[in-house]
Design a protein that fits this description.
The protein is 51% helix and 12% strand. It is α+β, with helices and mostly antiparallel strands. The strands form four sheets. The protein has a six-stranded antiparallel β-sheet. Strands 12, 13, 14, 15, 16 and 17 form a six-stranded mixed β-sheet that branches. It has a three-stranded antiparallel β-sheet with strand order 7-8-9.
């Protein structure tokens, strides 16, 4: 029995059972507020596994701060009595609301968005709830949803047993292999089978909750626990006509048996529900975010194998695959994996199902190209990711002059097999040139641009120039030239003052020829942002980009990094970066920059974890090592930070930004002499050639020399060094913000 007083809390009344404990309403006599106290009964506290689970709940929930997650005030133990003090929520649980009958669509969406938002925050902190159900969802009298009971959260799992529950875990010290954890009717198939779980398990459970809100009955039912588990593993719940097709599709995708076929992240669920809620409330078309979370077929187009005698014809086979990607991307209702992720499987020994699982797609297109003279033979086959079987295959023998029709023909065949409805006669976009020679030169330029070495970039310039010489009105070739100048300016291979005007001229020429080119609008937006500091114009151009290509990952990436980040709109920037990763999940560029944005948002633990995931993909990616070091500095892990920066420098070679980061970290850690050695070398180089001024400014900031820091930052602004736009958000520069020169510096960039 519990006493009338626990520390300075007065127990008022018993509210009920809550997971492992008994919940009471109490009054906090120190802060004069009502609270809820969950107490672990002595008979349960005597078992170490149950006590550990009780503590786990407090730790998991207390690590989160979100309006849709119950707030933990305190955890303690008095006279052998373990307890958790949390906010008192006035309201009732969702299971009680459901008992009165199905909810209206407006209510389902209102509650569903909030639940998804709370779980999205938990997943961002690497916490999976694993016991989501209506009884663990409280609705306040104001209609606010609170997620309760993180006792099964996947952090350090604990065993439990009892009526209606069995448990499983992957954390060896606290669990036994092969046991199931959660509540039967809401657990995911992988949870029921004691397999590894991640956030997609909560997505399945949310689908079961949404179904019950709509139907007024559980999605999975049966006369026994075994029958319920069998239904979870085998059956699809019957559709609920009252829900409408859009909500039914969202719920059905949440409830797919294989995790790879569900929404990739809880963010996607939230956005889909928000878009549907907007559609319901305004009776207008859904927002531009819909394509990133479309409930639809999905496809990855792998790089076509070059079977030509001339191995240099790889540019052509790559170009054909990419043109098919671009054509399919124009098909409403089809999600298409971007080039970077799809092409990352070149030369890797993985079957179709393995590739599809990594890319989260339902179909995969692969093929080969044999080019000889003016003849080309293309074979293509479309496979089902679920079983690896072919859906369609064909062989095409054509003259090179027919190559554009061939691209359209393959795209139309895929669309027909996927039973998608086309807009117009064909999915392909606007044809840019009728010249096979100009098109081939453009493909070569694009092929070398993606390789990003200095030599390849210079080759890409030559080929884009060749394409323009062959056809002066070739808009894509002009856009390619602009992207070349943007790239070499951003990489420090050419001073921005020289590179950016040429990037602008090329973008404007491309748009004069074809105003519908999203890549040219994105390039112009970048110039407005990083070179002109004309933020209204940059915003206008980025809006045009997102209207033209709402699911395009490159546009989302650039919008996040070069507009939203300087504007200090970090939550939106992170959301945009996640949308980019939805369509290009294996892009190292997007993966590392998600980590960067988390770092800029001061979410250091999440940033470190994201950089770790990036390095799992490529242990030699120097950018991830460098930014990992920056996050470790903010965590006070100076030895590790210097190790990370040193590793980055050894991989990057002569890169002033990486060298500057290492010297800056050494300065902060007290290694002033080695920092000054690096600094003197960099300043000497800057006297005779272009060196990004921010690479030197950060070293002076690390050494505490404010005068030199501001001198070099002023130079960075004058030279239009793109990295200077990180200063307003980079925590490393917190050390200089109190100075009177900080405000004027921001005003020079138009960022006040």
């Amino acid at each position: 029995m519990v006493g009338e007083r626990l520390l300075h809390y007065q127990i008022r009344e018993k509210l009920g059972e809550g997971g492992m404990g008994v919940v009471y309403k109490a009054f906090d006599t120190q802060l004069d507020r009502s609270v809820a106290i969950k107490i672990l009964p002595p008979e349960k506290a005597a078992r170490p596994d149950r006590k550990q689970r009780f503590i786990q709940e407090a730790k998991a929930a207390s690590a989160l701060n979100h309006p849709n997650i119950v707030t933990i005030h305190q955890i303690g133990c008095e006279d052998g009595c373990d307890f958790i003090v949390m906010e008192f929520v006035e309201g009732e649980t969702l299971d009680r609301l459901i008992a009165r009958g199905p909810l209206r669509l407006k209510e389902v969406l209102h509650y569903g968005v909030q639940i998804a938002a709370g779980l999205e925050r938990a997943h961002a902190a690497a916490i999976v709830h694993r016991d989501l159900k209506p009884a663990n969802l409280m609705v306040t009298t104001q209609g606010l949803v609170k997620i309760l009971d993180f006792g099964l959260a996947k952090l350090n799992e604990a065993l439990t047993a009892g009526s209606g529950e069995a448990t499983v875990s992957q954390a060896a010290p606290l669990t036994e292999a092969g046991m199931v954890m959660g509540t039967y009717a809401y657990m995911s198939p992988e949870q029921a089978q004691a397999r590894q779980v991640d956030g997609r398990s909560d997505i399945f459970s949310l689908g079961a909750v949404l179904y019950e809100l709509i139907a007024g009955r559980r999605a999975f039912q049966g006369p026994s626990n075994l029958a319920i588990l069998t239904a979870v593993l085998r059956d699809d719940p019957p559709p609920v006509a009252e829900a409408g097709s859009e909500l039914q599709e969202i719920v059905a995708r949440c409830l797919r048996k294989e995790p790879a076929q569900r929404f990739p992240q809880m963010l996607d669920v939230r956005l889909a529900l928000e878009d549907l809620r907007s559609l319901q409330s305004t009776s207008v078309a859904a927002s531009r975010r819909i394509p990133a979370v479309e409930i639809a077929p999905s496809i990855a187009v792998l790089p076509f194998t070059n079977l030509s005698p001339d191995k240099e014809n790889e540019y052509f086979s790559d170009g054909l695959a990419e043109e098919i990607i671009n054509a399919l991307a124009n098909v409403p209702g089809l999600r298409v994996t971007a080039r970077t992720s799809a092409f990352s499987f070149r030369g890797k020994d993985l079957d179709i199902r393995g590739i599809a699982g990594k890319l989260n797609v339902s179909t995969v297109l692969e093929g080969s190209v044999r080019k000889a003279g003016q003849r080309v033979r293309v074979t293509a086959q479309l496979s089902n990711a679920a079983d690896g079987y072919q859906i369609w295959s064909d062989r095409f023998d054509r003259e090179m002059t027919d190559i554009f029709d061939l691209q359209d023909e393959i795209s139309q065949a895929i669309v027909a097999r996927l039973r998608l409805k086309l807009v117009g006669e064909r999915p392909a976009g606007k044809r840019q040139t009728a010249s096979i020679e100009a098109y081939s030169a453009y493909l070569k330029g694009r092929y070398h641009r993606y390789r990003f070495t200095r030599a390849d970039l210079m080759k890409s310039k030559e080929y884009f120039q060749q394409a323009i010489a062959l056809e002066s009105d070739y808009a894509l070739a002009h856009a390619g030239m602009g992207d070349f100048y943007w790239t070499i300016g951003g990489l420090g291979l050419l001073a921005p003052r020289e590179a950016m005007p040429q990037a602008r001229a090329a973008a404007e020429r491309a748009l004069a020829l074809d105003d519908s080119l999203a890549e040219a609008h994105a390039l112009l937006a970048l110039v407005y942002a990083v070179y002109d500091y004309h933020w209204d114009e940059a915003a206008r151009e980025f809006r045009r980009v997102l209207d033209l290509d709402p699911a395009g990952p490159l546009g989302r990436f650039r919008h996040a990094m070069f507009y939203l980040r300087p504007m200090r709109r970090m939550d939106e920037a992170i959301a945009d970066m996640r949308l980019a990763l939805d369509n290009d999940p294996l892009s190292l560029l997007y993966q590392v920059n998600l980590g960067n944005l988390l770092y800029f948002a001061r979410r250091y633990r999440e940033a470190v974890e994201q950089f770790g995931r990036t390095l799992e993909m490529d242990p030699n990616y120097y950018v991830a090592h460098a930014m990992l070091g920056a996050a470790q500095v903010q965590q006070g892990r100076m030895v590790e930070a210097i190790e990370s920066a040193s590793r980055a420098q050894s991989l990057a070679g002569e890169n002033p930004l990486v060298a500057g980061g290492l010297a800056a970290f050494l300065g902060v850690a007290g290694g002033r002499e080695p920092a000054r050695v690096i600094l003197s070398r960099m300043e000497a180089a800057a006297a005779g050639a272009y060196v990004p001024a921010t690479s030197i400014a950060c070293v002076h900031a690390g050494l505490g020399d404010l005068d030199q820091t501001y001198a070099w930052l002023d130079r960075a602004v004058a030279e239009r060094d793109p990295i200077v736009l990180t200063v307003p958000t980079d925590p490393f520069y917190d050390r200089i913000r109190a100075d009177a020169r900080y405000g004027p510096l921001l005003r020079k960039m138009g960022l006040t």
